[in-house]
Write a structure and sequence with these properties.
The structure is a homodimer of 206-residue chains. With 206 residues, chain A is an all-alpha fold. Chain A is 78% helix and 0% strand. At the A-B interface, helix 1, helix 6, helix 7, helix 9 and helix 10 of A face helix 1, helix 6, helix 7, helix 9 and helix 10 of B. Chain B binds a DNA duplex (18 and 18 nucleotides) through helix 2 and helix 3.
DNA sequence: GTCTATACTTGGATAGAC
DNA sequence: GTCTATCCAAGTATAGAC
């Protein structure tokens, strides 16, 4: 239901969506005010009216993707206990993100941050929740196990985010997602092995 | 010792070096013909004379870094046997690359490839040797062990390159190399564990 | 809030003098 | 092989009409 009077932000939203799409398809370099505005079906000047600068719009795009992804991740991981299940869900998430290009937005913003003063800190701020989410999911999965006692969840989370990012970039580069797929298969096997050797944390009453 | 007559390619080399530095400091977006030429102390037009386009110069820069790195890697890994030693050497290499910004060149080129048609394939071509090198080093290290029988070296190499890339991007983003450092420490511990449980491949005559 | 028009800057690329 | 000058396209950003 729409209000006839103000209807405050349809253009703003369209610009953000267009910015996301442009980052996915044309990368950071291709994400100019003109390119984004054209994709949004509106004009270039509105970007500066609504966001002040192209950079701010791109950050809004990153916020959008970040929020959406973290929401979906939370739903997916909510009902996960064992490491095996976690890997299974992570594989699913990874493939979804890869095909939809969600991570491309992140990767392009990180790389682009090298070129725009001050952007790095803003991007870092927005990546922190991803790492924190991974840490929490990992802790819930291996927190009570011997492995969890040896390997700090925070460090592992950092590695997972980095690997996630690197795999996306390589997959995107030559359009081949097979190597990444095989890796997740491998991770699944290792997780299965882990569940049999170490004590699992799922519903084990001692 | 310099020849007085032709002295064929000093400018060309200076441009390549300047391109490398510019990619490191200002990223793909900042690596314009004018910015590179200024850093090289020569003028913009020479880039097109020598390389035809900025993109070609950037690829030459990537070639340069790639060749130099693979050479150094080869030297370092040449005398490595056990997984523990491999991790040790890898840590050293990683820190060197991180501080020198070698991987930044790679990361920026991969990210920038999204924006320039045809660049992706060229960059992919130049990354292939890195993966192949990693595969070979891994195979030499765990090839004869039980782990090597379960985990394909090629898949692991892909993961290593991806992780390497991802860690560089995250470290570069917020200027904090501590998380990456802790990870390598962790990897060292795991490798040590591996050497004790599984059979090591180093000089074991049965 | 949206559109058109425009100022200003930077960048890729070429021509021509030296 | 190098430098200057220049063209043209694209980018950011603002002003002002609607």
């Amino acid at each position: 239901m729409e209000r006839g009077g103000t209807r405050s932000a349809p253009t703003r939203r369209r610009l953000v969506e267009a910015a996301v799409e442009t980052l996915k398809e044309d990368g950071f370099v291709g994400a100019s005010a003109r390119a984004i505005a054209e994709r949004a079906g509106s004009n270039q000047g509105l970007i500066f009216y609504h966001f002040g600068s192209v950079t701010n719009l791109l950050l809004a795009a990153l916020d959008e993707v970040s929020a959406e992804r973290l929401h979906d991740y939370g739903e997916a991981v909510g009902r996960v206990g064992s490491p095996g299940e976690l890997v299974e869900v992570a594989t699913d998430i990874f493939l979804t993100d890869l095909d939809a290009g969600h991570m491309t937005v992140l990767a392009e913003m990180i790389a682009g941050a090298s070129s725009v003063p001050g952007l790095g800190a803003e991007v870092a701020k927005r990546i922190h929740p991803w790492r924190e989410f991974a840490r929490s999911a990992i802790e819930n999965s291996i927190g009570g196990t011997p492995l969890g006692a040896v390997v700090p969840a925070g460090d592992l989370a950092h590695a997972v985010v980095a690997l996630y990012l690197g795999l996306e970039m390589l997959s995107h580069l030559d359009g081949d997602r097979q190597p990444a797929l095989r890796l997740f298969g491998l991770a699944g096997q290792l997780a299965g092995l882990l569940e049999m050797t170490g004590a699992s944390s799922t519903s084990t009453t001692d």
